[in-house]
Amino acid sequence: MRRLLLINPNTSSTITALLQTHAQAAAGPQVQVVTRTARFGAPYIACEASYTVAAHATLDAWAAAMAPGQDRIDAILIGCFGDPGLLALRQVSPIPVTGLAEASFMAAAALGRFAIVTGGERWKPILERLAHGLGFGEQLVGIQTVTATGAELAADPLAAQVLLAHACNEAVARWGVQSVILGGAGLAGMAAGIQPKVPVPVIDSVLAGVAHALRQAPAQTLQASKRFDFAWSGVSAELAATGLCSCPD
């Protein structure tokens, strides 16, 4: 049985449970989804500061999951639409790493030009920067944000679906895209309810993330990690013990 490590970079156990439910259903019975919740940081990532802290929390959660005595992991998925710590974790991890946003960008780009609908206005510049950095700047033509945060939307799913369906249709009408990504861990499972009301594919970021992570797992050759030429200071014992980096000398 393959094991997928799903890291929630915020401190909300409710969001972790939501991710676990939808990710396990998507992965199927031959995969065990193992979740880790950030041990520090914000209960919801909603700004540049909380996003930066979440990147550290992602590395810390990974180190705890990979500590001696823990079960083998075959792939890692960062359970935040924004992928905090993605590139750093990809450097230090000898197993495949992806995030909800990266996986969704790949799925959407395969269909053509796409837009993003997500909660929280401050996410727009973060997601624009990420898309350009990952090479999807031309395919991403617009980001439609709603005022409510992902956490607030998750608290009232029925009302959220009405609001998000309207935002998806606005994005299609405004930009003429071939698909819309419904981005956010708190929005897991909502795309299915919205899809009948939207004329283009609505991509669930959690389902896209699980699918891409599992496609990577059996195919990628593991790379030997290299050690930093310095020692960590002030981080968790698990992270300090890794001391690893797979980047070239």
Please give a handful of descriptors for the protein shown:
four-stranded parallel β-sheet; alpha/beta; 10 helices; 44% helix; 249 residues; globular; 18% strand
What is the global morphology?
globular
Helix/strand class: alpha/beta
Summed up, the helix count is 10
Mean pLDDT: 91
Question: Can you characterise this structure?
Answer:
Helices cover 44% and strands 18% of the residues. The mean pLDDT is 91. It starts with a strand and ends with a strand. With 249 residues, it is an alpha/beta fold. It has helices at 13-27, 48-65, 86-92, 100-109, 123-133, 150-155, 157-175, 190-194, 205-216, 237-242, and strands at residues 2-8, 31-37, 75-78, 97-99, 114-119, 140-146, 179-183, 202-204, 226-227, 244-245.
SSE order and pairing:
Blueprint: E1 2-8, H1 13-27, E2 31-37, H2 48-65, E3 75-78, H3 86-92, E4 97-99, H4 100-109, E5 114-119, H5 123-133, E6 140-146, H6 150-155, H7 157-175, E7 179-183, H8 190-194, E8 202-204, H9 205-216, E9 226-227, H10 237-242, E10 244-245
Parallel strand pairs: 1-2, 1-3, 3-4, 5-6, 5-7, 7-8
Antiparallel strand pairs: 9-10
Helix pairs in contact: 1-9, 4-9
Short description:
The protein has ten helices and ten strands.
